Amino acid sequence: xxxxxxxxxxxxxxxxxxxxxxxxxxxxxxxxxxxxxxxxxxxxxxxxxxxxxxxxxxxxxxxxxxxxxxxxxxxxxxxxxxxxxxxxxxxxxxxxxxxxxxxxxxxxxxxxxxxxxxxxxxxxxxxxxxxxxxxxxxxxxxxxxxxxxxxxxxxxxxxxxxxxxxxxxxxxxxxxxxxxxxxxxxxxxxxxxxxxxxxxxxxxxxxxxxxxxxxxxxxxxxxxxxxxxxxxxxxxxxxxxxxxxxxxxxxxxxxx
Length: 256
What we know:
With about 260 residues, the protein is an alpha/beta fold.
């Protein structure tokens, strides 16, 4: 099944495989099924996080297109932006971040510490726009400005969620199943957070592409159920086609 991904360019940014850790006390406390956590906080790039898997494929695509600047967007304290800034720094590209001021009553620490501090350490250029701005349009405008300046920009969508980025979670599905087989852990369900849709779309396609028979449940972080499922479903179909396994995912496989 990993052959499905072998033809896509990829740069090594993450420490993989991430651990699959048993939580015996939480399992006992809840009195239900055995709970394991897939430690994707341990991906290792710029303090870690799940977007690093996506960036392995996105940054490789950017390098293949001879880009020298990566543009992305998010909230001021975006984990995705921090990992993108770290990835750009690691491969020697400039990073431009556009932040939407989504938190209206933010104090000074929110604006300057944590991820913002790390973004600056990684050398990213930061600009802020008002809440409600069309972020994709803002990235396109910046890309045009950079091109006029002789640069070759590459836009990474918010959350790294497009068919290329979602390959990181197709690969993660393969990794989870291989790990479970190796360690003798029968996985019935994978439960995860779903927002920009790339993680869920990638996992859904990866699991179905290898007939893993593992159910997937996304816990929505912002959109209502119907809206989130539709968003994931649209992307999942694109991802399935992209890896050469069209039709492997059905609408019923997408639950959020």
